[in-house]
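quick one
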Amino acid sequence: MLRTTKTEFPVDKVRRLLEPGPIVLVSSAHKNATNIMTMGWHMVIEFQPSLVSCVISSANHSFEMIRRSRQCVINVPTVELASTVVKIGNCSGRDVDKFAEFDLTPAPATQVRAPLIDECYANFECELVDASQVKKYNMFIFEVVQAHVATAPKYPRTIHYRGNGEFMISGENTRRYRKLFRPEML
Ligand SMILES: Cc1cc2nc3c(=O)[nH]c(=O)nc-3n(C[C@H](O)[C@H](O)[C@H](O)COP(=O)(O)O)c2cc1C
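structure w/ flavin mononucleotide:
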């Protein structure tokens, strides 16, 4: 068995090991404005309906835009957009039009008013289906009602935040362990 030497680790930093799903860009629209924020704190919570929970700080401009419009688009960027992803996270839609500032293309969605970000590998149109955890945890539960995914490459080079200014870039893929799965678990 794999044994390792361990040291005590601060509980407020466990996110560095648990967090790394892909960093996403959340686009929103409310009244005549659109906006984009960078987000790492998301989690899939159901297959069917397709539910995703997201923590959006109430300090963010996106918070009220999404709470009021009850919609957003979760966009999955690849490493080519990494600098833009960080810069989007460093400023607020209160002060900047982020589509114009970062030269991103808003494309019309089919089910929601929030725009897709054309430069991203995937775009998931979302409706807010449960706001019961917003007050306590700033946690929004969205249903993905429409999804658009690039036809190539098969494995996008997504970026995964480890905290402290460090990204992991998705790399090796393997089917070596596939035979160990019960079929219904695939
Ligand atoms: C890598 C990274 C991950 C982030 N993850 C989150 C997150 O999960 N939730 C959140 O509320 N803010 C997160 N932020 C911060 C927001 O992106 C940032 O506050 C953003 O500028 C808000 O924009 P807005 O005021 O236009 O909504 C993250 C920022 C970065 C750079």
